[in-house]
């Protein structure tokens, strides 16, 4: 049986900033590319960490929904932070998006992210 791959694109999240898809759906799962805190309307990344984190999670949510899933069906999340001291602030904002359902998650400290972003978030979600 051939492997069926479907790419996902939504205008409700920023376009990919490189040669990749916003997400790929395969075998009932949506695999999202990392999302930065880019405002999809302006293409701007705010300087403020909290604003970046909120936008990154809003972008993630928009792509999850465009793929046919929901945040309640997210199985794992990877968070990349340029400053691990932002971990607590990120958790507060993250809890707004995942108030009850708690996917598996990793938080990884990195030296830098594209476009001088402070946070990047990616996930895997099961389709409904």
Overall SS class: alpha+beta
Sheet with most strands: 7 strands, mixed
What are the segments in which pLDDT stays under 50 over at least 5 consecutive residues? Answer: none
Our measurement of the CA-to-CA distance between the termini, rounded to an integer number of angstroms, reads 22 Å
- Number of helical stretches of at least 4 residues: 2
Overall outline: globular
- Gyration radius, rounded: 14 Å
Mean pLDDT: 98
- Percent of residues in helices comes to 10-25%
Strand proportion, as a percent range, falls in: 25-35%
Query: What's the total number of strands?
Result: 7
Topology order in helix (H) and strand (E) letters: EEEEHEHEE
Features:
7-stranded mixed sheet, single chain, globular
Would you kindly provide a written description of the structure presented here, covering whatever features stand out?
- The chain has 128 residues and is α+β, with helices and mostly antiparallel strands.
- It is built from two helices and seven strands; from the N terminus they run ββββαβαββ.
- Strands 1, 2, 3, 4, 5, 6 and 7 form a seven-stranded mixed sheet that branches.
- Helix 1 (49-66) packs parallel to helix 2 (87-97).
- The longest helix is centred in the middle third of the chain and has 18 residues, at 49-66.
- The chain starts with a strand and ends with a strand.
- The relative contact order is 0.24.
- The mean pLDDT is 98.
Quick rundown:
This protein is of the alpha+beta class. The chain contains 2 helices and 7 strands; from the N terminus they run ββββαβαββ. α1 runs parallel beside α2.
């Amino acid at each position: 049986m051939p492997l069926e791959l479907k790419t996902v694109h939504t205008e409700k999240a920023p376009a990919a900033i490189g040669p990749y898809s916003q997400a790929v759906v395969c075998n009932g799962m949506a695999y999202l590319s990392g999302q930065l805190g880019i405002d999809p309307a302006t293409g701007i990344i705010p300087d403020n960490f909290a604003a970046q984190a909120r936008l990154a999670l809003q972008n993630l949510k928009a792509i999850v929904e465009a793929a046919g899933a929901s945040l309640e069906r997210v199985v794992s999340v990877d968070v990349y932070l340029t400053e691990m001291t932002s971990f607590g602030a990120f958790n507060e904002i993250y809890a707004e998006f995942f108030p009850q359902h708690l996917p598996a998650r990793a938080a990884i400290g990195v030296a830098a992210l594209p476009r001088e972003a402070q946070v990047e978030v990616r996930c895997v979600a099961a389709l409904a």
